[in-house]
Design brief:
The chain is α/β, with parallel strands linked by helices. It has one domain. Helix content is 39%, strand content 14%. It is built from nine helices and six strands. The protein has a six-stranded parallel β-sheet. It is globular.
Length: 218
């Protein structure tokens, strides 16, 4: 999907491991003008810093708050960036991990913040959101594009595309879960197999502490 806006997805390393429910990766695959980078902090990230400091870009951060411009209320106009390309940075992680990502990246803190309001409820059916109003990265991008389109800042002529991909991903995951519950299902590495034994030995012989706890993916 082509857009006038450039989207840059900044993914936490823990989120990057969540292959099954990673809507940030799916968003990146759906948008032609998007980039995805994985790190916990971005002040020293060369590609991110190049985008922020490019004089042809107008970089903003999608992050709700009192100081964020609400696109749904027309608080961002084309005149604000004077012909420069709008570049939207999105933090892709759980809220527990998003906050330190921003706290330890001063260059992101200093970006103008944008938000949207009156969004549709989350369409997640395979994962419960922590509270009302929380959206996946893909849903947030969809709502942002709707707001940009209404403001004349982008052309989002086929809004059903992103959401349809999102729903198909969930249908696939539901189907896989149902197949795994079948009584005749055989796991790829059943207990006692060569790979299973090797995995147990590796885990038992390692003293490395888990840096990131396992949490639910956004």
């Amino acid at each position: 999907m082509s857009t006038r806006t450039k989207f840059v997805i900044l993914m936490h390393p823990l989120e990057h491991r969540q292959i099954k429910l990673n809507t940030g990766r799916l968003t990146h695959l759906c948008l032609a003008d998007s980039e995805l980078y994985v790190d916990a902090t971005f002040d020293e990230h060369k590609a991110v810093q190049a985008l922020i400091h490019d004089p042809d870009n107008y970089p903003v951060l999608l992050y709700p708050g009192k100081d964020a411009r609400d696109l749904s209320k027309g608080e961002l106009r084309a005149a604000d960036f004077s012909g420069r390309r709008l570049v939207v940075f999105l933090l892709d992680a759980t809220w527990r991990l998003v906050r330190p990502m921003l706290r330890y990246s001063r260059s992101l803190q200093q970006l103008p913040k944008i938000m949207f309001s009156n969004a549709a409820p989350s369409r997640y059916v395979i994962k419960r959101q922590p509270e009302a109003g929380c959206l996946s990265t893909l849903e947030a991008t969809h709502e942002l594009l709707l707001a940009l389109d209404r403001s004349g800042l982008d052309d989002y002529s086929m809004p059903e595309q992103l959401i349809s991909h999102f729903m198909r991903m969930q249908e696939f995951q539901v189907k896989c879960a149902e197949e795994n519950r079948r009584p005749d299902f055989t796991p790829r590495n059943p207990p006692g197999s060569r790979l299973d034994v090797q995995k147990e030995r590796t885990s038992a012989g390692s003293s490395r502490r888990r840096i990131f706890p396992t949490v639910a993916s956004s």
